[in-house]
C-alpha cells in the first residue's frame, strides 16, 4: 500500500500516521520526489482500511498494491481448489453441469425434469423454493414445501441438489441440501455470508449484478474467513446499458478469476442472457473460456413455467446441449 | 401491455394465450398490420408476469405500457405522501436533514456529534451499529451496544434516530429506533423487505447500487404491499464506470421519482461522492433539484473515524452547510 | 410503432397527429382501454423519428415494435452475408484470423511480423498507421509512411491488409488497403461513415465503447444506406464498471447479432482484455460462440512495442493459438 | 508513477527498464518489502506511456500518481480560466446561458427563437446545422444553409453563436461562428481535436457519452497541446443502465472538474434528460453545484421540431426558467 502525502503536510501529523501504521505491524519505506512524498507500507495490508487512511487530512491519495483478500487469493494457495458436492467434484479439472427448473412447482415437474437432466448427463439438480422476484405480485416460490419436493427428486435420482437461500433464518430447512446458492441480490448480504461461513456445506456464490471481481472475491472471503472454504463462484451476467438481453455475460471473468483465485468458477448462461436460443452458444463459449461447470435452466413445459420460462430449455434441447458440451470437453482434453 | 405475436403463430396457441389472459381478468384488443400482429391487454396488468408471456413460443416480444407498481404509483395517489418520523414530517413540502456519524463508536462520540448536529439544525440523528463492509477484516459495527449508545443520544437530544438494519432477525433490537434504514446492498433483500412491510415504522429505502428507478419503486412496493406505506426513498449514488469518485450521484432521479411516485425522496451526498469537499455542492444541488431532505455524515474527528472518514464533515463544516441549506430553502420558497 | 396517448388528449390534436402519420404512408389502428388509448402505426416505421412523436404534448409514450434498421436486418435478408476481402471470404461459414501489430513501427517489424502471422495461418494482416491515443503525448502512428510499410508487407506476403482510418480526408491514402477499419471511438463519426458508404471497399466496423447492439447496427446501416453493403462487425469489449481489465468482452453480442443481422461479426480479444494471458481463452470462447473471425495483436518484441504491448502476443504464442483455433474450427465442423 | 515488479524479476531486465526510464529524464527511487519490489519514477511522468511499461514481462503492475494532463491541470494553473466568446465571458465567476433550437430549420424559426432567448436573458445563441443522428434516415441538418441562417440570427440579435462541427473539413464554414461545439460522439475524434488546437476560436467540448472525467480532460489537453487554450467543458449526461431518461446527468462532475482543472464547465440538461419537465430542476441543480453556464434547447413549436422536440422548452418556459436562474445566481452571490 502506497500513501501519497499532500505537499507541506504537517510533520507531526505525518509522524502520527507512521506510528499508527507501525502499531498495526507494518513497516514503512519513505520516498520523496520533486512533487510527491510517498509512504510505502510493508507487511499484511489486507487488514488496513484504505478509506480510513484517506480520511487523514495530510493524505492526498492511497493506492493498494496487494489484494485485500487472503483465503481466496491464489498467491497464498497456488493449487486449484476442488470442491466436493455430495460425491461430485468441481474444480481442478473436474467439470459438472447443474440442470433443473428455475422454480420448483410440483412433484411431477421436479421428478420428470430431474430424471431427464440426469439421463442427459447433469451431475447436480437445481430448483428454487425461495425466489427473489422484482415484483411482490410475482410467484415467490413454494418455500418449505418446495424444498421437500426437491429432496424427493434427490432421493429418486441420487443427484445432489442445489437451491437458493434468501435468509439465514431458513438454514434449518437446508440440512439435506448439498450445495447452497447465494443469489446475485444477496452477494453482499453480509449477515447471510457470515452464517454460511459457520457451516461446512459448499456454497455457490453468484456474482452480484454490478459487482467487481474484487468485490465478488471479498464476499467469498467473508464465507472463508468464517471457516467454510468450500466456495464455488458463479458468473451470471452483469448489468450494463445493453437492453437486448437480460444481462451481459462476462466470460472474461473466468480467466481473471483463475489468475486471482484458486476457487472454481461456473457459468449460468440462462440467467445471463434470459433468452433460450442464446444458452447453447454461451454454454460452449463458457467451456472454451475455462469454466469448471455450467448451471442451466430446464423445464418440462417452458411456456407454463411459473418463473423464467423464456430462458428455460426443454429436456430435449438440454440433452442436445449436453451432448455438445461433453464432446467439447473431450476435445479440449486433447487440445 | 402489448404482446407482439410471431408471424404464422399457431392459431390454437394464440387462442390458448388469449384465454389465459382473460382468465386473469384482462380483456384483449387485437390489431394486425402487414408485418405484425398485436394483442393489447386491457385491465390491471401489474400482476401479469411479462417474462411468463415471453416464454410462449408464439410470442416475439412483450412491451409494458402501465407501470408494474401500484401503491407507490403517483397515478393512483396524486398527492405527495408526508411521512412522520417521531414528530418530524418529511415530504409534501416538509424538508429534514439527518446528520450523524457513519458508525457509532463510543458514548462520547455519539453524544458530542448528536448535540452538535442538533444545534446546527438537523432534525434527525443517524449512526450505524450494523455496518455492511466489503471486507470481513474491516470494523463491522458495535451491534446491540451501538444501538444502546444511539438511543442514549436520542434521549439526550430528543432527536428521532435513523439506523441501518442488515437482517430481519435483528428487528427486536430496533424497537425504539424511529426510522429503519435499508442499505443499498439490501434493496433487493426481499425477505427483509417483507418483514418491514409487517411493522408500521417508517422505512428509509436506499437505492440499490445499480438499480433502475423502476426496481427501486418495486422494492418500495414490497414494503407497501405488506401494509407499511411509510417509505422514504434515498438516492445515494449509482455505480458507473467513473473512478474518480465513489459513486455517481443521480440527482435527476429526484424529478423522475416525483413524476412517478408520491413518496418522499432524500439524498445522501456523503456516500454518493465519498469525498468531503463534494458534500456541500452536492447538498445544495440536491435541494435545488427538489429533494425532501439530506442525510449527511458528521464526525467529531474524521481522521479517526472507524468508517468512511474521508466523506465525513466536522461539526463546524456541517453547521456551515446547514446555514447555507436553510437559507437556500428559504430562498426557494420565494422563487 | 405504438403511440400511447395521454388521458384527455385534445381530439383535434389527436386528429392532426394521425394525419401526420398517414401523410408518411402509414396506416393507423386505434385501441382504447380503461386507462390507455393507443395508436398502432402500420407500415415502414424505420423512417419515423420516435422522439419527434414524443415531443407532441398529447403523447405519453412511444414504443418501437419493428427494428429501425433495414439493410442490416436479417428479416429482410435471411441469408448470411459473405464479405470478400481480397481473395479472403468472411461470414456464412468462412472464418478468418487477422494478425499483426497494434502500430506499424518499422519495415523490419512489419515484414517480420507479417511473415510470422502468415506462416501461423492468419489470412489477413493488420497494422495501425493512424493511432487514436487518449493522450496527445503518446505515439500517434507513422501515418502515410506507416501505410507504405504496411503495403510493402502486403506485397511481401500476399496477405490482404487491414488498417484504421481516423478521418475521411485520409481516404486517398487507403487506396490499396483491402479492409478499412473504423475504430471504437469513430463508430458514430457519421461524416466518416457517410464517406465510407460511397466507396466499395469492405469496412470493419468496431463496436463503440459504450454502444448498444442497435446503435452498432444503425452505424452499419449508415454505410449500407450509402451503397456500400460490405460491412464486417467487430466486437472489441464494452465499457463497464469492472477495473481489472481494459474492457468487458461481450461475447453474447455474437449470437444476438446473428439473430438480428446477416452481417459477419469477428472478435478482437486483444483490445477487449488488454492482457496477453487472456487472449487465448477469449479467442477460443469467441470461436465457440460463433464468431466469423478473430483479430489478434502480434508483436515481435512486445516489451518494446510503441503501443499496446501488454496485450500483444509474440509470434510463437500466436502460432500456438492459431494451432488451437484451427483444431477447434475443425472440431466444430463435426459437432 | 510506481512500477511494481514481479517477484524474481531478472536483474538485467530490471536494470534495462531503469535505464529506459532514466533516459526519459526521470529519476528512480527503489523500495523493497517482503512481498513487493517497487520502482518509484520521479519527474514529469505525463509523457510516460503506462501501458508500454505494463508490456514488460518483469512488471506486475503500474500505478499513476500524477495526472497525465498538464495544460488542463489546476495544479499548474491555480486560477480559474475565463474564456471569452465574442464579448461574453465564461468561467471565473462569469456565468452564461446558451439558448436556441436543437437544429436550425428555417429563417423564421431561427430569428424568432433568437429574439426570444435574447429577451429572456440568454447571452449566446445555439443552433445545429450538422446533426449527428443515430439513424441515417433521420433529418441530418441544413449544413451550410443552416449556418447562414444562424449567422443571420447573430446579425439580427448581436448574440454570439454556438454550433457543432462534425468534421475538420467543414472548418472554413465556421469562420464567423463564435464558439465551436465538439459533440459527445466526437469527444475522442482526435483528428478533429488536433485541427481545433490550431485555431484560436473557443471550443465547447462535450463529455463523451461514456467518458471518464480523466479522458474528458485528456481530450481538452489535445486541443490545448496544439496551442488553443480556449476550452469550455460541457457535461451532458453519461450512459448508464437507467432507461427512464435519455442519459444520467452527472452533476458531481462539476465540483470534480473544478478540483482537477481550471477550465470552465457548463451543463446541458436538455440532452442529459431528454425530457422537457426535467430541464428546470436540473438547471437549478447545476447552478447550485457550481456550473459556469447552461445550454438549453428552446423551440418555438416543440411538437414540430425536426429534432429533439421532447426536450425543447417553449420560449415562454425558457423565459420562466431564466427568471429563476437569474434570481438564483443573485442569491448565490449573497450565500
Automatic annotation (TrEMBL), chains A, B, C, D:
GO biological-process terms attached to the record: aromatic amino acid family biosynthetic process
Record domain DAHP synthase ferredoxin-like: where: 1-67
Gene3D superfamilies: Aldolase class I, Phospho-2-dehydro-3-deoxyheptonate aldolase, domain 1
Pfam families with a match to the protein in the record: DAHP_snth_FXD, DAHP_synth_1
Keywords attached to this entry: Transferase
Keyword Transferase carried by entry: yes
GO molecular function: aldehyde-lyase activity; transferase activity
SUPFAM superfamilies membership: Aldolase (SSF51569)
InterPro entries: Aldolase_TIM (IPR013785), Class-I_DAHP_synthase (IPR052899), DAHP1/KDSA (IPR006218), DAHP_snth_FXD (IPR041071), DAHP_syn_2 (IPR006268)
Top-level division of the source organism's lineage: Bacteria
Residue ranges constituting the DAHP synthetase I/KDSA domain according to the UniProt record: 87-328
NCBIfam families: DAHP_synth_Bsub, PRK08673.1, PRK12595.1
Protein name: 3-deoxy-7-phosphoheptulonate synthase
Organism of origin: Anaerostipes butyraticus
Amino acid at each position: 500500500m502506497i500513501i501519497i502525502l499532500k505537499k507541506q503536510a504537517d510533520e507531526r501529523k505525518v509522524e502520527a500516521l507512521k506510528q499508527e501504521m507501525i502499531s498495526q505491524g507494518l513497516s514503512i519505506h519513505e520516498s520523496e520526489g520533486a512533487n510527491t512524498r510517498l509512504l510505502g507500507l510493508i507487511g499484511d495490508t489486507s487488514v488496513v482500511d484504505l478509506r480510513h487512511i484517506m480520511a487523514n487530512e495530510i493524505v492526498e491519495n492511497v493506492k493498494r498494491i496487494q489484494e485485500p483478500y487472503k483465503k481466496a487469493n491464489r498467491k497464498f494457495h497456488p493449487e486449484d481448489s476442488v470442491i466436493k458436492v455430495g460425491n461430485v467434484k468441481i474444480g481442478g479439472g473436474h467439470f459438472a453441469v447443474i440442470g433443473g427448473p428455475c422454480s420448483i412447482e410440483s412433484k411431477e415437474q421436479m421428478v420428470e425434469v430431474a430424471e431427464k437432466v440426469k439421463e442427459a448427463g447433469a451431475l447436480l439438480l437445481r430448483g428454487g423454493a425461495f425466489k427473489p422476484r422484482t415484483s411482490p405480485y410475482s410467484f415467490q416460490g413454494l418455500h418449505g414445501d418446495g424444498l421437500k419436493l426437491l429432496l424427493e427428486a434427490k432421493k429418486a435420482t441420487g443427484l445432489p441438489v442445489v437451491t437458493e437461500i434468501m435468509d439465514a433464518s431458513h438454514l434449518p430447512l437446508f440440512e439435506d441440501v448439498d450445495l447452497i446458492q447465494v443469489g446475485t441480490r444477496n452477494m453482499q448480504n453480509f449477515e447471510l455470508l457470515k452464517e454460511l461461513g459457520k457451516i461446512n456445506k459448499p456454497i455457490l456464490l453468484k456474482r452480484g449484478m454490478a459487482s467487481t471481481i474484487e468485490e465478488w472475491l471479498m464476499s467469498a472471503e467473508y464465507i472463508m474467513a468464517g471457516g467454510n472454504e468450500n466456495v464455488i463462484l458463479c458468473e451470471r451476467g452483469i448489468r450494463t446499458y445493453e437492453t437486448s438481453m437480460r444481462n451481459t455475460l462476462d466470460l472474461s471473468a473466468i480467466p481473471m478469476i483463475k489468475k486471482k483465485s484458486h476457487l472454481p468458477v461456473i457459468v449460468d448462461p440462462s440467467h445471463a442472457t434470459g433468452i433460450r436460443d442464446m444458452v447453447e452458444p454461451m454454454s460452449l463459449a463458457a467451456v472454451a473460456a475455462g469454466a469448471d461447470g455450467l448451471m442451466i435452466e430446464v423445464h418440462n413445459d417452458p411456456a407454463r413455467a411459473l418463473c423464467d420460462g423464456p430462458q428455460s430449455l426443454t429436456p430435449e434441447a438440454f440433452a442436445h446441449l449436453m451432448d455438445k458440451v461433453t464432446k467439447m470437453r473431450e476435445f479440449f482434453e486433447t487440445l
